[in-house]
């Protein structure tokens, strides 16, 4: 019995030690909205070099915290860094621009909304699709949970910050899309990169979200996808190479493939 | 019975019978529906490619091999950690403990552990194993969390089977001059094997079904790893992957495929548990 | 001499192993209290427990968890209200009336029900139950307290049925013979004599079921819509468990600490239920 215990303990210890030494892989941590883009970039990089890129979807703020505490090599955030975060020695590099798109069910005849209408809908001032030229039916607001980068980006751009009255608060882009696709009167928002064709994307003030309109700023509801690095702690060789790869021209096609638009 | 019953009594009997039959039929029908619905939705989505590949963003494909491996890693790691602890604790309770207060405290603690919801295990596991012990979000942190969760199960099943080892076995061995540890090792332990195995099966069942405790401790990555790197990397087990695919990504075909696999595994585990208890009963009756 | 020392060492090792469960309970309580207390103190106990609004990221931030507490209480009571009669009558039938074959089949079905992972309940709930509720009650959206209650009442069934069967089977046959001899029919005997004798066992079954249901996070998060409303049957609601699970990933600062405080409240709930359970078991032993 005693032998077993000591063997087990030493195995556990050995594993822990391995954990500390395990710096061959590139580790990334952060925004759940960036899953597709970082997943695609990581996979392409692994095919090219054989080096694995791990991604831990924890959320923008958690990712930023993880870089500053050295728990990961590159942080991923779907918002700009705050002033105090930059003062702490963090540096942001914009990888891509993402549009936050307003989605409705395919059965919904409405195809365009004014910014002021969107704002009124999410504040609960407009409650029926009839008022917007759609079929008669109560508007079902589907949003994200408090703290989500997408929710913050959407509410800031539409001037509904902390005023939105949701019917459901879901914890992921996929869930919002699924719910909207199943309810003829639902409206929600999600990242352009995660939107699928089972829901309808609305124009805002008659602007279609596209590479052009997002880059020139005509499509207002947008946000950057950034890579966060620690100025005080230089990247190890593998991570530096990966960082160079994701900011290179070679990566632009992959970024487009992921449904967002390269910043360059 | 030829007694003449009043109408009121007849009505009472009738109503009770109806309630009983309705409830039983309802329960069994519901279970049957669940089983067949999940299997019907799931099995057609299970194919060789799904089981043997990892997901690819570039190809837009999903494979659950990493999740299967992660599940196996976490089961192995949890059992390695929890078995010595649980069996040891049970041995202490049945063979060594004399102080009633200590026994009561331990039993109360073990009951408390059994009642704590898995989400709380997840939080404490995150705070203690991932952050304080700096294991990060990893399979090993998940396994340690699950070990605490399953400690009461192993303790209880081992204790129950230790209690069935006849006192005369121990007395006989002591009479031959053996020390306490030797008696335990050679006489007591081999006889509580059935309890240990039952405990292991129950634990495996519980690990297979666990989601909440693992979300914050083991994470939900789908990377394909060997066991050593696998243990220190974040990884989703099958249940967590089911949650992620259904709730976060809306991939219901994959979710149902995993649900069907879990359902079949649950059936197998129940079957094995019944067979083992029958086998040991048979053996001990000889 | 050497042998004696060895035996003592072994005894010490086993003592430590035995006390490990106690250590874990202390560890869990310690972490929950340490991480849960600061936010409660900062917000104020009364305001935290009884304020109706949960707005963690708003400039006028408010951390009231009354909606979560009430939702958890309503949800659990609803599940017991539906699950208990069904479970109770099934248990009586299976333990006293069912032919052996039916009993065997039903019992293995119930074991399966107990073993099904809660995500699977959540998955079926979200794809079958939620749309069904939307249609039946012509609601704008089916994700609601009702959906959660129905899923939970299914999850409470196995523990109610299994423990009740054990309790009913432990009733001494003499009680029943006496009742039958006095002219009561079989059905009357079972319901008026056996059930009464097994009362505290059945109560234990309910409390055990409540324990599982109060702590369930994943299945309810998938069907309840997850908005911090005050509970109402057809509204989207958030439980204590789903409050912790859904916002943990993104939270920071006081918000994060408040989530730990919710976990502490949940833990206290469970402890109270456990103590009630112990009370029933003790009374059972005495009576």
What string, H for helix and E for strand, traces the elements of chain B in order? HHHHHHHHHHHHH
Helix share, percent of chain A: 25-40%
Number of helices of chain B: 13
Q: Could you please say which CATH topology of the largest domain in chain A applies here?
A: D-Maltodextrin-Binding Protein, domain 2
Percent strand of chain B: under 5%
Largest sheet report of chain B: none
| Spatial extent as radius of gyration of chain A | 21 Å
Q: What is the rounded distance between the termini of chain B?
A: 43 Å
User: What's the total helix number of chain A?
Assistant: 10
Give the CATH H-level superfamily of the largest domain in chain B.
Answer: MetI-like
Largest sheet of chain A, if any?
Answer: 10 strands, mixed
Question: How would you describe this structure in keywords?
Answer:
heterotrimer; A: 264 residues; alpha/beta; D-Maltodextrin-Binding Protein, domain 2; 10 helices; 12 strands; 38% helix; C: 287 residues; mainly alpha; MetI-like fold; 2 domains; 12 helices; globular
Describe the fold and architecture.
The complex is a heterotrimer of chains A (264), B (286) and C (287). Chain A is α/β, with parallel strands linked by helices. Helices cover 38% and strands 23% of the residues of chain A. Chain A has two domains: 113 residues, D-Maltodextrin-Binding Protein, domain 2, CATH 3.40.190.10; 124 residues, 3-Layer(aba) Sandwich (D-Maltodextrin-Binding Protein, domain 2). Chain A is elongated, with a radius of gyration of 21 Å. About 3% of the residues of chain A have low confidence. Chain B is built from 13 helices and no strands. Chain C is an all-alpha fold. The longest helix of chain C is centred in the N-terminal third of the chain and has 42 residues. In chain C, strands 1-2 form a two-stranded antiparallel ribbon. Chain C starts with a helix and ends with a helix. The chains are: A alpha/beta (264), B mainly alpha (286), C mainly alpha (287). Chains in contact: A-B, A-C, B-C. Chains A and C meet through helix 3 and strand 7 of A and loops of C.
SSE blueprint:
The complex is a heterotrimer of chains A (264), B (286) and C (287).
Chain A: H1 2-21, E1 26-30, H2 35-49, E2 53-57, H3 60-68, E3 74-77, H4 83-87, E4 90-104, E5 112-113, H5 115-123, E6 140-144, H6 149-157, E7 168-170, H7 173-182, E8 186-191, E9 200-201, E10 203-204, H8 211-215, E11 222-230, H9 237-246, H10 250-257, E12 261-262
Helix pairs in contact in A: 2-10
Chain B: H1 7-43, H2 48-52, H3 65-96, H4 100-115, H5 118-132, H6 139-163, H7 167-175, H8 180-191, H9 193-209, H10 212-215, H11 227-232, H12 238-248, H13 252-285
Chain C: H1 2-43, H2 45-50, E1 54-55, E2 62-63, H3 66-97, H4 100-115, H5 118-136, H6 145-169, H7 173-181, H8 186-197, H9 199-214, H10 218-223, H11 240-247, H12 253-286
Antiparallel strand pairs in C: 1-2
Helix pairs in contact in C: 1-12, 3-6, 3-9, 4-6, 5-6, 6-9, 7-8, 9-12, 11-12
């Amino acid at each position: 019995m005693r032998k077993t215990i000591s063997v087990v303990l030493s195995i556990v210890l050995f594993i822990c030690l391995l954990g500390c030494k395990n710096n061959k892989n590139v580790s990334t941590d952060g925004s759940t909205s960036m899953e597709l883009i970082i997943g695609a970039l990581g996979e392409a990089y692994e095919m090219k070099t054989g080096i694995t890129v791990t991604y831990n979807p924890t959320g923008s703020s958690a990712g930023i915290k993880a870089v500053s505490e050295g728990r990961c090599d590159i942080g991923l955030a779907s918002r700009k860094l705050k002033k105090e975060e930059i003062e702490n020695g963090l540096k942001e590099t914009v990888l891509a621009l993402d549009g936050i798109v307003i989605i409705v069910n395919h059965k919904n005849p409405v195809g365009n909304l004014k910014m002021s209408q969107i704002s009124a809908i999410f504040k609960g001032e407009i409650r029926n699709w009839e008022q917007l030229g759609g079929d008669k039916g109560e508007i079902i607001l589907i949003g994200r949970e408090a703290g989500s980068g997408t929710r913050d980006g959407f509410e800031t751009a539409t001037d509904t910050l902390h005023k939105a009255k949701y019917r459901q608060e879901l914890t992921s882009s996929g869930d919002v899309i699924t719910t909207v696709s199943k309810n003829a009167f639902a409206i929600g928002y999600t990242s352009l990169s995660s939107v699928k064709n089972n829901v309808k994307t609305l124009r805002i003030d008659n602007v279609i979200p596209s590479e052009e309109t997002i880059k020139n700023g005509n499509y207002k509801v947008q946000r950057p996808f950034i890579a966060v690095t620690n100025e005080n702690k230089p990247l190890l060789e593998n991570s530096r190479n990966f960082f160079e790869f994701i900011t290179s021209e070679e990566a632009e096609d992959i970024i487009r493939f992921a449904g967002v638009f390269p910043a360059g | 019975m030829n007694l003449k019953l009043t109408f009121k009594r007849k009505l009472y009997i009738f109503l009770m019978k109806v309630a009983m039959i309705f409830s039983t039929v309802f329960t069994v029908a519901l279970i049957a529906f669940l089983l067949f619905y999940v299997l019907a939705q799931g099995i057609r989505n299970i194919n060789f490619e799904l089981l043997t590949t990892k997901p690819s963003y570039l190809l837009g494909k999903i494979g659950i091999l990493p999740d299967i491996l992660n599940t196996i890693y976490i089961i192995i790691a949890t059992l390695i950690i929890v078995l010595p602890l649980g069996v040891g604790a049970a041995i202490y309770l049945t063979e060594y403990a004399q102080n009633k207060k200590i026994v009561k405290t331990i039993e109360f603690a073990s009951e408390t552990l059994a009642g704590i919801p898995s989400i709380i295990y997840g939080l404490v596991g995150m705070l203690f194993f991932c952050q304080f012990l700096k294991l990060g979000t990893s399979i090993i942190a998940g396994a340690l969390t699950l070990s605490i969760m399953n400690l009461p199960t192993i303790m209880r099943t081992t204790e129950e089977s230790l209690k069935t080892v006849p006192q005369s076995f121990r007395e006989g061995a002591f009479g031959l001059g053996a020390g306490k540890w030797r008696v335990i090792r050679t006489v007591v332990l081999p006889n509580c094997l059935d309890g240990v195995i039952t405990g292991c099966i129950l634990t495996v069942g519980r690990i297979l079904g666990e989601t909440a405790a693992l979300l914050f401790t083991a994470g939900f990555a789908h990377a394909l790893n060997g066991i050593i790197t696998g243990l220190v990397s974040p990884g989703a087990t099958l249940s967590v992957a089911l949650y992620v695919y259904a709730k976060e990504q809306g991939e219901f075909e994959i979710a149902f495929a995993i649900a069907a696999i879990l359902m079949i595994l649950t059936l197998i585990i129940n079957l094995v548990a019944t067979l083992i208890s029958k086998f040991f009963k048979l053996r001990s009756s000889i | 001499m050497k042998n004696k020392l060895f035996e003592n060492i072994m005894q010490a090792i086993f003592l430590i192993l035995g006390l490990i469960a106690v250590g874990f309970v202390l560890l869990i309580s310690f972490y929950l209290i340490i991480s849960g207390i600061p936010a409660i103190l900062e917000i104020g106990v009364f305001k935290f427990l009884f304020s109706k609004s949960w707005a963690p990221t708003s400039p006028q931030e408010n951390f009231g968890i009354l909606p979560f507490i009430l939702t958890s209480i309503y949800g659990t009571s609803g599940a017991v209200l539906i699950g208990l009669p069904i479970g109770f009558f099934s248990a009586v039938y299976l333990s006293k009336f069912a032919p052996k074959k039916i009993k065997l089949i039903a019992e293995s079905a119930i074991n399966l029900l107990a073993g099904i992972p809660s995500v699977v309940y959540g998955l079926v709930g979200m794809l079958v139950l939620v749309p069904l509720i939307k249609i039946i009650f012509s609601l704008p959206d089916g994700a609601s307290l009702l959906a959660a209650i129905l899923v939970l009442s299914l999850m409470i069934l196995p523990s109610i049925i299994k423990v009740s069967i054990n309790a009913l089977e432990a009733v001494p046959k003499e009680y029943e013979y006496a009742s039958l001899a006095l002219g009561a029919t079989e059905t009357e005997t079972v319901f008026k004599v056996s059930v009464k004798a097994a009362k505290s066992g059945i109560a234990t079954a309910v409390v055990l079921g409540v324990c599982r249901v109060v702590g369930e996070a994943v299945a309810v998060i998938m069907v309840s819509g997850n908005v911090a409303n005050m509970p109402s049957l057809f509204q989207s609601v958030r439980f204590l468990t789903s409050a912790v699970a859904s916002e943990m990933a993104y939270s920071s600062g006081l918000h994060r600490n408040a989530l730990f405080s919710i976990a502490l409240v949940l833990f206290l709930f469970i402890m109270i239920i456990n103590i009630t359970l112990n009370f029933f078991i003790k009374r059972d032993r005495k009576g």
